[in-house]
Amino acid sequence: MPVVHALGRQSRRFSELELALPGTTPRALTAALKDLTEAGLVRRDLRDDYPPTTAYRLTTAGGSLVTPLVTLHAAVSGAVASDDGAPRTPG
Q: What's the per-residue H, E or C state across 14-70?
């Protein structure tokens, strides 16, 4: 869910999301945004600017995922940082 994390609590244009998600291809980002929009987690807003622009933002349901994702990321990052690389033995 990197797109959900990148959107956070703000609206972003496609190019801003590309910058926030280095290594993500435009095709993959487009597919992710489409899937999240269809799932009701992201809303696509057409702005009446000149030239017209499109922005993406989290819906209420999508916004409810931000805190758990941040917590999960912190937990995983902490676990990886504390792993000394030694093989683990059961028990």
A: HHHHHHHCCCCCHHHHHHHHHHHHHCCCEEEEEECCCCCEEEEEECHHHHCCHHHHH
CB atoms within 10 A of CB 52: 8
pLDDT at 78: 75
* 64, part of any domain: yes
Domain with 32, as residue range(s), is 2-74
Residue 80 lies in a domain: no
pLDDT at residue number 82 = 60
Whichever domain contains 45, its CATH number is: 1.10.10.10
**Average pLDDT along the chain, 91 residues, taken 10 residues at a time:** 83 93 94 94 89 91 84 78 57 49
Instruction: Determine, yes or no, domain membership for 67.
Output: yes
